[in-house]
Amino acid sequence: MPEASSQAPSTQPKRVSLWAIAAFTGVLVVLVLMGIRLVQNDATPVRLGEAPKDFSLRTYTGEVINTADLRGQVVLINFWASWCTTCDQEAAFLEQAWQHYQLEGEKQGVIFLGVAYMDTESASRAYLADHGVTYPSGPDLRSEISRIYQVKAVPETFILDAEGALRYQKIGAFGSFSELQSALEGVLAFSLD
Questions:
Q1: Whole-structure pTM over 0.90, yes or no?
Q2: pLDDT tens digits, one per residue of 161-179
Q3: Which of 7, 85, 144, 145 has the greatest number of C-beta atoms within 10 Å?
Q4: Whole-number Å distance between alpha carbons of 159 and 170
């Protein structure tokens, strides 16, 4: 008769492979990063009539502009990118409007801010030069400004009244100078009331 095995089950703890630990740690890190990104993107969108959070924009000329310092003026914020094909024609309308309101001087109280969205500095600078853009423009480092406005694509334009509240939003490009001017005039009229 065959002898029965008299070996008792092993009481040594099972070794967890280093690969399993590394895989678990990797999955955990990815989940934490996804959670952080979801929380960052979970900000409620700015609604018309509400004042968005103020931000500072360091322009490509080195000037720092803080929107909190612009109260009393209508502020047009345009998100653009050098790789955006629909931004090309709109750039001409924006520059034309900027020049128009600058000719009117201080009494108009309009400032434009161009915000380069997900773009490289060299490409952005080349775009500004190619399109003759003279209004203040700068990069959106770490997407901080675009998160405030919940920008999903470019171009997008937001116009704040003299009190800093959002009064106009345009998703997509302006089709003409007159469309852009009409939007600005509407916010200016609201700001004067």
A1: no
A2: 999 999 999 999 999 999 9
A3: 145
A4: 9
CA geometry: angle 83, 66, 159, nearest 5 deg: 60
To which residue do tokens 């700068």 refer? Answer: 138
A 10 A CB-CB count for 70 gives 17
Distance between alpha carbon 30 and the CA centroid of its chain, in Å?
24
The span from the CA of 42 to the CA of 76, in Å, is: 24
Grouping H, G, I as helix, E, B as strand and the rest as coil, residue 114 is strand
The CA angle 147-148-154, to the nearest 5 degrees, is 60
CB 136 within 8 A of CB 63: yes
Specify the 3-state DSSP secondary structure of 70: helix
Tell me: domain 56-192, CATH 3.30.365.10, correct?
Answer: no
